[in-house]
Design goal:
Blueprint lengths: L1 E3 L2 E4 L2 E5 L10 E5 L4 H13 L9 H8 L5 H12 L3 H11 L2 H25 L11 H18 L2 H9 L1 E7 L5 H9 L17 E7 L2 E7 L9 H13 L5 E7 L17 E6 L14 E2 L8 H12 L15 H22 L4 H19 L4 H4 L1
Parallel strand pairs: 5-7, 5-8, 8-9, 9-10
Antiparallel strand pairs: 1-2, 3-4, 6-7
Helix pairs in contact: 3-4, 5-6, 5-12, 6-11, 11-12
Length: 381
């Protein structure tokens, strides 16, 4: 029974976790009470009046990291786990929280430490006759380290999509079924659908889940010449949005000639040509890569979702089935490490002194340590 100021608060269970066996690595007491919010509020208020303070956001995880209970990547994985919008994002966050990224980087780091220790031993103890081993085998090992880092870097686009969602913009001429496509992907009537051209005049944004990939779908106004100021503004907003997209869904009518419906799209952004209203026929002028769809019945929707997944994962190369991904901070740091290794390999191929090679390898090692939140000088020694 828990009492405060002669008042019974609740019948509770107190669990004492002796350091370092708690989540934070510190002495910790857990109070398990009944689930009524008023009971919880009364217990918390009593603790605060007795001198406790409320934890800051993320403070328990911060303490766990500072007490070596969690690595930096595990702490980031925990944050991703709390806000993961899809099952695929959950799997990726869980893999990082379980330390899979840390383990992968530790193996790369150990290899780099071994390379650097042999190189620096020959520099620091030349009088003892230690010969520098920087021949083809040394270069091959550096290349192997760089490739392992590049494999992780290739997962960054997928990591960004899983955390932020991919911006997919639906474009096309009026009345081709753009809003019907939006509704089909959402599995709900989100946008107004009408046979009158120009029904959609502003941007309509909604979120959906396509094969575990979170998408930010934006339905745009139909692209055509108009004297209506509202429709002109809608077309301007649609064009301004295109450069920020990660995928363009270009909708045309399946039974109409393709040349007559073609609109100009940015060439540097992946796009899918979707021929809607396929129940009315399929015109012979449509390109081979066309995806045929009837948005009203859902016929062809599964094929479209598979093509959306393939287009978004194209940058991940052969790693489309991977669970482990990296975030923007980790990507930027690993990019620096890869650049240092590239310069080290260039120095190994040239006549540059061993000191410069050592500097580049040390920089790469420092970047790896920054990703996982560790230092490396003692390991080299």
């Amino acid at each position: 029974m828990l009492t405060y100021q002669n008042k019974t608060l609740d019948d509770v269970v107190l669990t004492f976790w002796n350091a370092p066996h708690s989540y934070t690595g510190e002495d910790t007491v857990e109070i398990s009470c009944h689930g009524n919010p008023h009971l919880v509020e009364n217990i918390v208020r009593a603790c605060l009046e007795l001198g406790a303070r409320a934890a800051r956001p993320g403070e328990f995880t911060q303490r766990a990291f500072l007490n070596d209970k969690l690595s930096l990547t595990q702490a980031e994985g925990l944050l991703d786990l709390l806000y993961a919008p899809t099952e695929r994002a959950l799997a990726s966050a869980r893999a990082m929280k379980e330390g899979k990224l840390g383990h992968a980087l530790e193996a790369v780091r150990a290899e780099l430490i071994d390379l650097l220790s042999h190189l620096e031993a020959s520099l620091d103890f030349a009088e003892e006759g230690i010969e520098p081993r920087v021949g083809p085998e040394f270069s091959a090992r550096v290349e192997n380290v760089r490739e392992k880092i590049n494999q992780l870097i290739r997962t960054a686009p997928l990591g960004r999509i899983l955390q932020e969602g991919a911006l997919a913009v639906i474009v096309g001429e009026p009345n081709v079924g753009k809003s019907s496509l939006l509704n089909a992907l959402l599995r709900e009537d989100r946008a107004i659908v009408a046979p009158t051209p120009g029904t959609t005049r502003d941007l309509i944004e909604a979120s959906c889940n396509v094969r575990g990939l979170p998408l930010r779908l934006i339905d745009t106004a139909g692209q055509r010449d108009s004297t209506d100021p509202v429709e002109i503004e809608g077309n301007r907003r649609a064009r301004a949005l295109l450069p920020n997209a990660q995928l363009l869904l270009h909708v045309v009518e399946a039974h109409q000639p393709y040349a007559a419906t073609k609109i100009e799209l940015p060439e540097n952004i992946p796009s899918l040509l979707i021929a809607n209203k396929s129940d009315l026929g399929r015109h012979a002028s449509l390109p081979e890569e066309t995806i045929f769809l009837c948005a009203l019945t859902g016929e062809g929707l599964g094929d479209l979702e598979a093509k959306i997944e393939s287009a978004l994962l194209a940058e991940v190369a052969d790693e489309t089935e991977t669970v482990l991904t990296i975030n923007a901070r980790q990507n930027a740091t690993l990019q620096r490490a890869a650049q240092s290794l590239d310069r080290a390999l260039e120095a190994l191929r040239g006549s540059t002194g061993l000191e410069l090679i050592s500097v580049e390898l040390r920089d790469a090692l420092h970047d790896l340590a920054e990703v996982i939140g560790e230092t490396d000088n003692e390991d080299i020694l």
